[in-house]
Amino acid sequence: MNPLLSRLQPYPFERLRQLHAGVTPNPAYSPISLGIGEPRHATPQLIKDALIGSLAGLASYPGTLGEPKLRQAMSDWLARRYGGLKVDPATQILPVNGSREALFALAQTVIDPGQPGATVVCPNPFYQIYEGAALLAGAQPWFAPSEPARNFGIDWAAVPQAVWEKTQLLFVCSPGNPTGAVMGLSEWELLFRLSDQYGFVIASDECYSEIYFRDEPPLGGLEAAARLGRHGFKNLIALTSLSKRSNVPGLRSGFVAGDAALIKSFLLYRTYHGSAMSPIVQAASIAAWADEAHVIDNRAQYREKFAQVTPLLAQVMDVALPDAGFYLWAAVPDAFKGSDTAFSRELLALYNVVVLPGSYLARDAQGCNPGAGRIRMALVAQTAECVEAAQRIVQFIQSKVH
User: Cβ contacts of residue 274 below 8 Å, gap of 6+?
Assistant: First the structure.
């Protein structure tokens, strides 16, 4: 067996299952889960129609590079979304089977484990695929500290020079999971300067980019590069997906875009890995990337949901509307002595609501676990169910305080 597998930690949802083992939820309440970030809004009909209408494609082997019309649809979307951004569909875009598998595979392509101290820098808290990808590529993850006062934005300047010198890959997530923090142009400028100085690749995870609550949409990595005159996107790969944007997590469809040299190497890796996208998924993806009406409607549903839920929870918790994403990142009240795990267990037992302990989404690093004492709530269900969950959480906290 690959000895590196022993370095992997249990996935957060397996830890949650173990935490809740032996807990009997109160049968007086119907179960509501805010634990897993799985979109539950309806899949747009136009995507279903495209899937059904393309079944003849099952008779052909797909190419790893994808159909030209698919890559053109992706390039067109980037141009519409990011103010005329120019990305060559022939050399700077590659379809992937969801951003999760691409994040993992990119690390296997980029990392040279033969280099002493090969390092991957990750945000903290973070999406656990970053850590697993680094470890199985033979590298060591280093967790960059976050700043609670800045909505847990990452303090990139706090990463020591000795770490940057050994860094081969940097994972960034904007909008962030679980905090919803969005990186600004000055942060991108700093990271590009560091990448130029030390030669590492930046993987920009942007799967939450289309769910936002401000008037201005989140800045993307490619967009930031173009604004700063980096039109070749040197050492930059952006990753995105239809899962959250179009409510099709089961479709497993997304794409990577950026530095043509990196895309070429990634294509070679994926050709051997057998990562070609199904023809019927390609057809459905073309339909999805070409349509914006369903995305606007999806965003409106989230905005309405957060507008109702956030003020309810803010009565009893330290929680605020995020910049983007579909999570609330809330502090556990003092009555629970900072224990996010105790909060999660008791909430399930008494009110049949599942939330994810924040400590499961972070690592003990630089002297602390930045997720400790917080919980992540995924507002993915319908509005009425999310409001009901919030009302129960309010009752739960008030019962502990009074």
Answer: none
Q: What is the mean pLDDT of each run of 10 residues along the chain (402 residues)?
A: 93 95 96 94 96 90 96 98 98 97 97 97 96 97 91 92 98 96 97 98 98 95 98 97 97 98 98 94 98 98 97 96 96 92 98 98 92 97 97 96 74
Q: Output the pTM of the full model.
A: 0.96
253, 285, 320, 386 from 288: Cα distances, Å: 10, 5, 31, 27
Overall size of the chain counted in residues: 402
Q: In CATH, what number does 3-42+294-401 get?
A: 3.90.1150.10
DSSP 153: E
The third-level CATH classification (topology) of the domain covering 46-291 is Aspartate Aminotransferase; domain 2 (3.40.640)
Structural domain spans, the chain: 3-42+294-401, 46-291
Report how far residue 91's alpha carbon sits from residue 79's, in angstroms, rounded to the nearest whole number: 16
Residue 234 Cα distances to 11, 71, 159, 230, 295, angstroms: 33, 20, 21, 7, 30
The CA–CA distances, whole Å, from 6 to 18, 119, 260, 262 equal: 19, 18, 34, 29
